[in-house]
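dude i think i finally got it to work??
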Amino acid sequence: MSDDTIRLVTIGRIFRRRWRLLVIVTVVGALVGFGASLLFPPSYTTSTSVLLAGQWGERELLTQAEIAASSAVVDRAAATLGWTGVGGSELRDRVSAKAADGNIIKISGTADTPERAGRLSDQVAQQFVTFAARIAGDSTDPEAAVRPEALRQKVEQAGRRITELADAADPGRTVEGVQARTELEKLRTALQEAMKKLDEADPAANKANMVVMGPAARPAGEAPPTRMQLIVAGALLFFLLTVIGHLTAARMSRRLRTEPEIAAALGSALLGTVEVPGERAAHRPEGRGPQARIRRRLGLDTRWDTPTPQTSGDEAGRQLRYRRVCARLRDQLPVPRRLLVVVPDGDEIARRAAGQLAAEAESDPSPSSSSRGYPMLRVVGVSVERPMVPDRDNESGALVVLSAGSWTAGELAGIAEACADAKHEVVGIVLAGTVRARPTRAAGHPPQHAAPAFAVGDDARGGSA
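look at this
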């Protein structure tokens, strides 16, 4: 797993190098969302409010909301509507109720047309009021229903008796008469207030006093999720999944990126790093057929997670790096000899660097001087799937040239084993990287040498790892 931190520059690199793929995946996601909208027909939702007069607690309002959406109410509404193929069980999923502020129960109905949605919510509200009134009027104890009425009659009789006593009392001639009339009026007022409180506290009276606050309003639009919401959600979901897939693949990548890891996998020392000018066409592996053309169209034939090439100083500086690698090879070898330059197949950056390195070794100005000259280099391509290196002939050693972040430890170990099977010692490793060349070339500098031909694995002799 790579320990590189996922930063905004990484996401920007995905957008920049995989924008064709992201566009196509987003369009596919939008089409999937459109297809999903065809499976779910449009629906419309509207609400009807029912006002509950009197004193109601929060739990009582929640209970009334549950009653409004219960099967007892919805089944009666379904029977009254008489819609073909739509029963109470289907309508239960389309009806909801909730308690709002101000002792109001909002009953919502969902249907395939605005008209049906309005009729459904209105009918459920009406059935709820009727059902609540029926509950308030029903009682299993007949005597319990008679007691409040008998109490009212007793209070009325007591009020009339108080009036008679007040009229019979001394009409204000004495202090005792005035006090008696005052006490009788207080008693009458207390009885009236007691009956008023009794009426307000009567649950049957409260439950029966419900009012439907007008018909349901016509829905202004479809209920979510609408067709447009499904299309946008599908496009966004596919887009995010593609980006997350790229980040996960990069996070789980086992390709070696650092110099110590590469040197440990090949079992040799790093001789240096060389640079080649970045060319877009040069980074694309050759391939024919419809699949290869599709990959090129989508930009899948090149890796997206490679860092952006830095601007190179000039061609003279790049040439100096190649000379230094050749000089280290010359100083490391006891006598001048021929070496194989092993390049993994598919690593175009390493192939160009190996060709330039071989050309630089051939251009040694003083091969017979005291410096003993650069070793002779021959470039061969090796398949990482079935690595095979030519047996020792004129060459007596191997120099591995590759680009960082392209191969796993197992693939590089296979190349090292193939070199050992062919009796070639890996004398060093050269890492190749791309840079952006300046538009102008230094005056008088010779052009780059052409890369020599590769030795094909089928024609080479030697064992396979």
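Residues 367-371, 441-465 have pLDDT under 50 and may be disordered.
im so relieved honestly
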